[in-house]
Amino acid sequence: MKPPINFNFFNPIGIFFILVMILLSHKAFCQAAAVRGTIKSQTGERMPFVTVSLSESKKTVQTDNNGDYSFTTLQAGNYIISAKYLGANMESKQITLLNGQEMVVDFVLSLKERVLDGIEISGYRRFGKKESEQVAKLPLKNLENPQVYNVVPKEILQEQVIVTYNDVLKNVTGVSQGLVNGSNSFYMRGFENNSFIRNGIQDRKDNSLEVANIEHIEVLKGPSATLFGNSLTSFGGLINRVTKKPFDIAKGEISYTLGGFDLNRITADINTPLVKDAGLLMRTNIAYHDEGNYMDAGFTKRLFIAPSLLYKVNDRLTISIDAEIYQQKANDFHRLFPEMSFTKKSTESLGINWKRYYHGNDLTESKPSVSIYAEAAYQLSAKWKSQTLISQTKHSSVGYRVWNEIMQDSVNRNIRYSNSNYNSIEIQQNFTGDFELAGHRNRLVVGLDYYNARSNENFIIAYPFDRIGLKGKDPAYTHISKATVDAFLATLNPIRTISEQSTYSAYFSDVFNITHNFLAMASLRIDHFASGGSYDLAADTVTGKFSQTNLSPKLGLVYQLIPDKISLFGNYMNGFANNGPAIQPDGARTVFKPSNANQWEAGLKLNLLDGKLNSTISYYDIKVNDILRPDPTRNGFTIQDGGQISSGHGNRIDCQHGQRFQYYCWICLQ
């Protein structure tokens, strides 16, 4: 029995009420003036860590990672605003502020045409990166965003000598490791999640993900279908990989990593301005990885090449194209599942030799993939810009997967051989505006999205291939090999299917400044999903063809208690999953509606000590409705009345920091 909830402060309705009361009690802020802007170089690059000072007020700030700065709660009057950066000429402008006015003052800094007088050395490495336009598809700071997210920059990957994608997510609270079948799966807020998004758009593939081309990782918490759809996200959130981009300075880096279990890894990062004056830049990342296993068999070899091309056509148009070419050959990772009756309380009590692999090095799987990404960014006007994205991913799976089941004192060895191909493509068009409406700032994105996934599967399953002893000596332990497996699989019939699905979507998201420090977000997506079903080549039949249309809203409020330092936020977010029809045992065809997940969340965000301390404290509640489940009253029938709840409180729940609590967890610390 759950103990009663005593702290109503964390009820989402209570948080929204507090936000309104705080707003009403701070009317004086409404009359305060503000200055914000962006600082760029002569080449159009946004410049972080530029010092901006404001005379009279004696205030000084630094631009963030996007080159943005802001001064808030200013009095009306005359000021001189200056931008200063090491190696660049200082720029100053004189401005006059009126009561309640928010003025935009941008700078373009030119480099000094002389040798620097000195060198500045700093021992502080800024890992607390929190800003990203891809999270909300808008120029929105973390303290202005009502959604919880984490950013892991490449500096952390380098500092920790991370060589596998699974280790990257250990830096994110509330993310736990799932099964690793040569690819990557995780659990977020109680729901399984796969990393299928690169640069805000699809990159759906089955092979392991390489870290050599990662600029940073963005992890959004909670249902995020409103902006990113349901095909690439889960009810727990999404993971977005942002790749490295070319820049206008020739630079190269080569590294070699030597580790345990015969690890040998070589990486290279080479940036080459092809025609610098014409804005044609190129960058290439390469990685070769060769690693053994702590067990008596098993290895992984992979080669990764990622060329990237950036062309600044003019001051308005930028075109970027990049590719990730990947080849992996490896043994399937070791899986040993308990089946039937099982009474052991821990893995140690089994008394198993954990170095036994149960299959050999010649049962391998090859997973090649090619991902192409292209973006055209066009500045339509001073307040509007267009972004066109295209991404295509092709990958294959050829070889053997083995999973083992403990059956009392024996182990069943099961084998799946596959020779399958997959292709995914997504086209997305976004129009983004940053403008004022009746004296209030609006940041708006309107988008169209098309996603298509096609699979051609050809596989055989030996279930089981054989059974051997769990403990002690068993001569049959080494009888599994490519030759014996191929001979056994030749006696079975392969399964061949072709399937295809498409999604057509339109969405918008608007962030409206009620006051300078009080923001409201409203977002909506309409999504039409069409499945062509699965075509069985042997039976010459198509099954599972269906279509569904769904609306996905998102709402949020943010109030900055202390501008750019502390903000209160609350959100309502939606996610959904399409459900295909079912043929019931009596022959009837039952049509189902999508399952929907609804999240309420409220909390506090901190950005203190000049950005060195970032933290989020939040309470969330996710409820999933209309889940399919077996009918308990009619054997073999499927009904749609299931539900699932995931929240920041309750007995034995996962909070955002990833730790389990036996009793009540009132708030979850990020």
UniProtKB/TrEMBL annotation:
Domain TonB-dependent receptor plug: 143-231
Broad class of the protein's primary localization: membrane
Cell location: Cell outer membrane
InterPro entries, A to Z: Beta-barrel_TonB, Beta-barrel_TonB_sf, CarboxyPept-like_regulatory, Plug_dom, Plug_dom_sf, TonB-dep_rcpt-like
Key words of the record: Cell outer membrane, Ion transport, Iron, Iron transport, Membrane, Receptor, Signal, TonB box, Transmembrane, Transmembrane beta strand, Transport
Membrane topology: Multi-pass membrane protein
Top-level taxon: Bacteria
Pfam family name, one: CarboxypepD_reg
Domain TonB-dependent receptor-like beta-barrel: from-to ranges: 353-640
Family listed: Belongs to the TonB-dependent receptor family.
Protein name in the entry: Iron complex outermembrane receptor protein
